[in-house]
Design a protein that fits this description.
Helix content is 55%, strand content 9%. It is α/β, with parallel strands linked by helices. β5, α7 and β6 form a beta-alpha-beta unit. The structure holds adenosine-5'-triphosphate.
Length: 260
């Protein structure tokens, strides 16, 4: 597939580069139409954030890395968008925190599961759970295909990193007693509001940061990591993220009004 050359000076160069990846993911059969639309919703929120990692996201990223390091059985749940946008970082993070990787899809077909597994393996994953018959158990409280999980993976995990997730599954995972970490550009989504730890950031920025944090925090005393998690309030952090967007928009609007 031909990838468009994006001029470095273009004001939205990074966003356009990511769009090219989305196009590739779609052509490879890893992403579906709905995933492309979901990406658009994410882009809109990224625009409001100023396309950068806000302080609240940095804080949540540290806490997320701590939670993954403290988990007995951590897992990274991968869908088409995640496999398209951050395959290398998923594998690196899994290695760093000792997590498993599982495919979990709303629009589930064996072809897509295999395409995603192959992609993850290209980036160094040794094992990818949840493919085909391996996803043999049903997560209670869910009607979509996302209910099918691997007994070796999500079913028995205590901590699930589920980026770009839907609200129903986040709620079902929480109900099953799991710590759910998500990455979601929309601080108002049901997932963002329901997860235990929400990183309001673009996955392409957030994943390299969690990997980095995990290598730093690995050297820290476990009790300090526990304290870090105890002190974190996801609702407060989400409200501050919304406040960041509101302040930014107010500032932009007042500059414009004053210059008229
Ligand atoms: P919910 O069910 O949680 O209310 P939704 O129906 O909006 O959310 P989906 O469409 O299933 O959820 O998931 C997409 C979510 O992922 C959206 O909240 C969107 O803002 C977010 N998103 C899309 N692209 C990215 C990205 N690159 N990085 C981070 N978040 C993203």
């Amino acid at each position: 597939m031909r990838t468009k050359k994006i001029p470095k000076t273009h004001p939205r160069a990074e966003s356009l580069r990511v769009r090219e990846k989305v196009k590739e993911g779609y052509t490879e059969g890893i992403m579906v139409e709905n995933g492309v639309i979901a990406h658009g919703r994410g882009e809109a929120f990224d625009y409001l954030l100023g396309e950068l990692t806000i302080p609240e996201a940095s804080k949540a990223t540290k806490v997320a890395a701590a939670a993954l390091l403290l988990a007995n059985n951590p897992i990274i749940s991968v869908n088409g968008n995640v496999a398209t946008l951050a395959p290398k970082e998923v594998v690196k993070l899994a290695e760093s925190v000792g997590a498993k990787i599982e495919v979990n899809l709303f629009h589930r077909t064996l072809g897509r599961e295999i395409a995603i597994m192959k992609k993850m393996k290209t980036f160094g994953a040794k094992e990818v759970l949840g493919v085909g018959k391996a996803a043999s158990l049903e997560l209670k409280g869910l009607e979509s295909s996302r209910r099918w999980v691997d007994p070796e993976g999500i079913m028995t995990a205590d901590t699930v990193l589920a980026p770009l997730e839907d609200g129903d599954r986040t709620a079902a995972l929480r109900k099953a007693g799991k710590t759910v970490i998500t990455i979601d550009l929309n601080p108002l989504s049901r997932t963002a509001q329901t997860a235990s730890i929400t990183i309001v950031d673009n996955i392409v920025r957030a994943m390299p940061l969690i990997v980095e944090e995990s290598t730093i925090l690995r050297k820290i005393d476990k009790n300090d990591l526990k304290d870090m998690i105890k002190r974190f309030d996801n609702k407060v952090n989400l409200d501050k993220s919304l406040g960041y967007i509101a302040n930014r928009l107010e500032k932009i609007a007042s500059i414009r009004v004053n210059s008229q």
